[in-house]
Model the fold of this input.
Amino acid sequence: MKDFLKITLKHPQDVPKLREKIWDLESVNEVREHDIPFYRRYLIDNGLFPMNMLEVQGKCLKSTRASLENKTCIFEMKTQPTPLESDLPELKVLSFDIEACNPKGMPLEREDPIIMISFSSNQGFRKVFSTKDSSFDFAELVHDERELLKKFVETIKSENPDLILGYNSDVFDFPYIRDRAAKLSVPLELGVDGSSLKFMRRGFTNAAVIKGRVNIDLYPNMRRYLQLDRYTLERVYKELFGENKIDIPGDEIYSCWEDGGEKLEKLFEYSLEDAIAVTEIGEKMLPLSMELTRIVGQPLFDVARMATGQQVEWYLIKKAFEYDEVVPNKPSSSQHSQRRGRSIVGGYVKDPVKGLHDNIVSFDFQSLYPSIIISKNISPDSLMDNCTEEDCYISPEIGHKFRKEPVGFVPSVIGKVLQERLRIKSIMTHSTDTRERQILNVQQEALKRLANSMYGVYGFTLFRWYSLECADAITAWGREFIKKTMKKAEEFNFKPIYADTDGFYATYTGSIGNKIDNTDLNKEN
DNA sequence: GTGAACCGGGG
DNA sequence: GTGTACGGTTCAC
Done:
């Protein structure tokens, strides 16, 4: 227990000013929660969850979106949704892709005009604007690049999407469009209120911001959701749909454009296919992002750009407010490098026995680390210096002690997440409605992701809840559990041939006819 | 061995 | 905008 003084200010801009002033005061130990952006603070303090519907006496509480006409609002509601309420009205999604080329390599904003812009919406809209003519079905000829850019703005205005999707569009398409439009003095009034395209600095990259529409760059999302060697649009598309889309290697685009004829037709087709692929990938992946948005309680725009660890962190920040906990600070740069200097021992890995094996069985723990966090009450607020085995769980190898009571902040949050997941899974198994089952499945997936990423908040040096002791204790128990399980399996004639962290493969050396009593093999948690 | 530079995706 | 944030590999010394 610590004493805190809560200071409320009238204007967000006063926060950094006051922060600087009180930091050095002798009576001040630490200043907390001084770096939560205003709009996030607002969502947290008011218990609002984006991407949920809110209807107040048949009217929208907020009116930034065009869906006013429908008398529904895609906005916040005061409580977390129940599964059935979360079936939102369909959002209009518009994807786009631009083409530009340079004989020597990547096109340069200063020299190379945009030659094509393709659109695809989730409601069947398809179009390729280009400064060259084509007999391609969806092609529309424009006079020059200036008109091309104007068509870009007009199309977004007339299609009026809720979501705008691109692939690497934060880094390539939008900045390229911005620079060309600046050169040709075309105003990029893309917002629902006619406001201009803006860029927000986010770390080492920018994000394109359009008022009233959620711009999502699918590229960083795909890096998070899929485990691939490369993340080109083609590779990702193949992974998700098992089909090849037409691809034109980058260095051939220039000749397609210059030579014309069939090669130019193919370029039109390729460009539109890219936009369509983005729509399809979006339709497949967005439900999960939306679900995470609802759970994490921060805007889709932000959540779609957060690494999983950050999503977990913001979820915990939201929960901290509910639990009356004060959020720990981000590490200073010196704290960060200090943390990086001390390494955490990872999971147990047994090098694979070389060769071809028959009768392979795989064992794995379900949510090993989350279960350990809960069952051993691993939380910074449960960590004790002196404690007996009676009152504390004591970790193997390193002997960190965690009191059994009361339940710590993080274990409590994970517990609720897993509980909610089980609840949804059980409704899902009993549901006969396919659509409902799909929605519920995405929801339980999102919760699973969140729970499984929770370990990271202790182990990743940049995070607010970083704790070497907690991270070390989790992996230590993890190693103990898997080794014990492997030993147990050996008693039943399984010979482990490879193990990694939360699971192992074994060959069965007994006779196949023998009955295996798998209750004895059940995992320890 | 160390620190800086570079890269991802995009055409 | 209560912000300014990656992580891994390669290269030059």
Summary: The longest helix of chain A spans residues 261-296. The longest strand of chain A covers residues 93-100. Residues 52-87 of chain A form one domain. The CA atoms of residues 87 and 439 of chain A lie 8 Å apart.
